[in-house]
What does this fold into?
Amino acid sequence: MKVELDATPSAFDTLAEEWDGLLNVNNPADLFLNRGWQRVWWKHMQTGTLEVMTVRDEANALVGVMPLFIQRHDTDLAVHIVGCEDITDYLDFVLQPGCEEAALDAWLAFMLSDSSPDWDVIDLCNIQATSPLVEHLPRLAQARGLAVETPQQNVCPVVTLPDDYQDYLMMLDGKQRHELRRKRSRADAQGAGFYLVGPEHDLDEEIDSFLELMALSAPAKADFLQEPGHRAFFHETGKLLYDQGVLNLVFLTVEGQRAAAMWQFGYGDRMMLYNSGLDAATFSYLSPGIVLLTYSIQDAIRRGFRYYDFLRGDETYKYRMGAETTTLHNVIIRR
It folds into this structure.
């Protein structure tokens, strides 16, 4: 195995075809490891120094991509995956199935060699419990005399979807089921409607409408959107993922006025709720966020998705909607 290092943003483009060829739609982390997402994140959120590392086998085929950056924290130089941790819910390395252990071991050998950039700690965030970085990397690192921790960092509540929306409702607590039906009926009586942004819409205008609702929904979200690069990030990744058929931008309207919106990703067998917004001042009496969520879950079931993934955070409403916990971990390696 041969490890190479490219410390320039051009790596996102020069590796494009090979990189994207390694992605696995059954791994939700690979959505955020899409080299387009990684390139846009680095463009707008970059901090520290970029260090894109690749692993190739004896036939020079790409078997691993480690998109990393190094940032100083107090006295430590820390290695992170590009995207860690703002705005990105799942992270990992991009690895060829069957080559995970060999690629990770080759990468560790490189990180301990004279060719490696300087570092004090490797801190990999938002790693799924099922990732090779949790399953194999600690053992490989310990064999090389390194200290390793894999503490739980966060949770991603996920609903396993049945084949029918009525069956989904029957999965829920009786009181919750009654509340959802009541809220849907009340919204329908007020002329509520649901739509998914498609080719008949102006994508830029729809993204702007979503961002307006996002800012209206909470002061923290409004502040977030004022930070440099954040609005541009939504526009650029939105267009990128829309063209790839991944972005599912949905709205709830009431008598033709947008009341709530959800920014979702349909990837592999799951629908992922990435962010949301609503006009609470005007439509709070209709619970527009929850009503839109019922429409969205119903639509995901109709389209054959097997999971509805709420992504990071343990908010109570996610569990009321039938979610079960999956865990995210830090993988922390020290010399």
Notes: The CA atoms of residues 199 and 213 lie 21 Å apart.
